[in-house]
Amino acid sequence: MYNMDAYLKSLTSNAVKLSKKVQDGIAENTREFRFENQAHFLETNEDKMREIRQNLDSRYEKEKLDGLKRLIAMISKGRDVSEFFPDVVKNVASNSLEVRKLVYIYILRYAEQEQDLALLSINTFQKDLSDKNQLIRAMALRVMSGIRVPVISPIVILGIKKCVTDLSPYVRKIAAHAIPKCYQLDPAQKDALLDIITTMLGDNSTFTIGSVLMAFNQVCPDRLDMIHPQFRKLCKMLVDMDEWGQITALDLLLRYSRTQFLNPQGRSAAPVTRPVKKTKPVAKSFYSDDDSDVSHHSSDSEDSSEDENHAVDPDLAFLLKCALPLLQSRNSQVVLSVAKLYSHLAPAEDAYKIGRPLVRLLRTHREIQYVVLSNIVAIASQRPYVFDPFYQHFFVRSTDPVFIRNLKLEILTLIATEGNITFVLRELQEYVKSSNKDFVTQAIQAIGRCASNIPEMAESCLGGLLQLSYSKSEPVVAESVVAIRRLLQQRPQDAVVMITQLTKALDEITEPLARANMFWLVGQFCSQLPLVAPDVLRKAAKSFCSESESSKLQILTLGGKLVAQDGTSSKTINLLFQYVLNMARYDLSYNVRDRARFLKGLVYGQQKAGQENVELDSSENENGLLDSNNNDSSELESESLQGGGFEYSDKELNLSEHVRKILLSEKEAPIQENPSHGREQYMVGSMSLVLNRSVSGYEPLPDWPTVQPDPSVRRMAATMEAPGYMNDRTGFGSDSVYAQSRQQNSSSSSNSNTAGSRTYDGQSGAYRGAQTLDKFLESSEEETDSSEEDSEEEDSDEEEADSDEEEESSEEESEEDGDEDDEEEEEEEASSSEEEAILPAKSTRSNGRR
Q1: How many CB atoms lie within 10 A of CB 714?
Q2: CB 362 within 8 Å of CB 396
Q3: What are the Clathrin/coatomer adaptor adaptin-like N-terminal domain coordinates in residue numbering (predicted)?
Q4: Distance CA 807, CA 235 (A)
């Protein structure tokens, strides 16, 4: 009975203790998981500051964590808390990963101020480099490389070298990130860092290689010779890299390709406009990808490209093939990087592949749309046929902002072809109906550019612009007349009809820019408008006082052209021009007064001087003009003009004879440049292209080489990765008997032409005739046995020959021995030359038995 009571008491006490522990555990867990107010970490009174030091010296990890959180919060507010550096450094070897992270952040912040105390933690970091946890190893190297103390640069180098050979790809990635930091800390360590980068470029982890290439770009971007052995491997690893690694790799491979391959675009130059092609239908499967098929290519282009594809380097074609799947990436920068690669490297027949992926990016945010559209403008200015099948995707939406709308209009004018110009013009006519005057102006300018690019549609465009010139909107009328003027300069055969139609609306058009362009058109084509031009001058003379300055200048020019054409035969035109000159003489604008004085002296200069009856021979007149600057001419009589006081001579300044050439000469048609003209000179995907100006730090692509560089520098690396070699250069297979047997086999195969001889194919990276490694080894063993038997027979023959030669004289023996030595040397040279053609260059080679 007593035992039962004691048992119950002990059971009760244990239950109470257990329940208490459970309650404490629940309370602690609730404290950890509940949403607490983090504002108390920002309190900076004296009591809280004393609590921080107590928390850092506590033996409980949670109190240390609270103290570190307070410090990090103060750092975020800009307060100096370097006084706690000794207390924080003591916790650098904490078992809690969260505490270590905060300690590392604090040390990185104040390591430069407290260099002596920061050096005390270096030993801990060096020990952590050998920790079992890969996160601790990586964090230790990250913090050690982030401490900006130049004294520890050799220690950082040793840490990087140790982490380069780490089994964890994450640690090797952090080691790659530490290389640029160490280089900025101490540039004198560049040679050691180059050796590390060379080693890390051979890393086969796709998780690491992107960071290695980033370090390469920051430390030694010009050492492209280090990429030779890794070029094909980088091409293969493109698909499996992370997104930012893909961007870095594509940029590096682009610069590498521009220095190592000949220009395939020069061999197959892309036309500026889409050529006339006969489409060839290609059957598509249900799951076919439009990005990869070439159904929109023509049979003519395919036939012509067959002769041109051989000019493209196989390695360059391999790079383009490996980069093609990245066009389906979800990262817009990756897609843009592939487009940059194709636009600067790919021949014309491969440029179609980047059209649809770039158009797909237009469904994202408007900031990304602007960048993509800017790059499309640059690509379309060189290769417009890439985007002409997708012209509907560039139609302007009502929600598009101004900067996107203008770029879309520009792209529509660049990719317009004979097949889609009808739909493009129909869309542009709808834009003209918009209430936004600036948008209407841009649309009318786009119509004019379309008509200039496609002469077949110029007539219909002129008709549409003529209708717009009757609009009630002054900006629409002004831009329409300006567009008509530019088109008529390119198509003078349509000038008479169009100008006649325009002059009918002269009384209704009040826009100064439109009226000035109309007066210029009438004056330029006045010889073809003998009835219309004088009547326009009559109307202009009536409204001269109320015209704008630009219109007055063109009216004066119109009168001068008519007088220069008809001379003094038409009194009406002379009277109208005199009236205009008198009105311009008292105008408020000095430009108008100067123009009137200039035209009066040019047209009436000789007549006002009283020299109407002076007849000069044309040859004498020309000689006078040519010899106007010579000193051997006789004294010239000069008379002052009544109107202006100018002095003219008989031979020196007689410009009136050439007034027709001066005023009525044909003017060249203006060249219409796109608003984004100049973007194509910058590299696709660069900030300079988006801003259309050179930005600080922009480096243009290197020019294509004129002479083909040696392609064997890349094929050597492929040889080392062939089935006959191990990927590990230091382990089994590097200097083994197997390597020697391959050299013996190559020498024996040169003597006997067997069907099983093997040659290395640099493009495929394998040996022809060896299907598997086992068969390859078996065949090599058989050949070694046969070579040994042949060598034994040769030895027996040599012994017999030696016994026969013992009877001869010593002189003959020496001569025959010299001949035999020469023959053996020739055989060895032949075998070694064949080995060099088949195998890569080696530092040491064993030629078998001599």
Answers
A1: 21
A2: no
A3: 44-603
A4: 68
* Chain length of the chain: 850
Give the whole-angstrom CA distance, residue 146 versus residue 142.
6
What phi, psi does 698 have (nearest 5°)? -75, 130
Structural domain boundaries of the chain? 1-35, 722-792+827-850
Q: How far, in Å, are 544, 577, 590, 680 from residue 541 at the CA level?
A: 5, 8, 19, 48
**Contact between 678 and 692 (Cβ < 8 Å):** yes
Mean per-residue pLDDT over the chain, rounded: 75
Residue 638: pLDDT band by 50, 70, 90 thresholds?
A: very low
The phi, psi pair for 279, rounded to 5°, reads -70, 145
Distant-in-sequence, close-in-space partners of 283: CB < 8 Å, separation ≥ 6: none
Of the candidates 707, 618, 697, the one whose C-alpha atom is nearest the C-alpha of residue 654 is 618
Rounded to two decimals, the pTM is 0.70
Residue located via tokens 């009277």: 575
Q: Report, as an integer, the average pLDDT of 9-38.
A: 64
Q: Which residues contact 828 (CB under 8 A, 6 or more apart)?
A: 847, 850
Instruction: Please report how many Cα atoms fall inside a 13 Å half-sphere around the Cα of residue 37, on the Cβ side.
Output: 4
Closest C-alpha among 625, 630, 614, 628 to residue 661: 625
**Half-sphere exposure (CA, 13 Å, Cβ side) for 370?**
12
DSSP 238-257: TTTS-HHHHHHHHHHHHHHH
Over its C-alpha atoms, the chain yields an Rg (Å, rounded) of 43
* Alpha-carbon distances, residue 649 vs 560, 568, 631 (angstroms): 22, 22, 15
Determine how many CB atoms are found less than 10 A away from the CB of residue 132. 6
Percent of the chain topping pLDDT 90? 33
Site of tokens 């190297």: 141
Answer yes or no: are the C-beta atoms of 3 and 10 closer than 8 Å: no
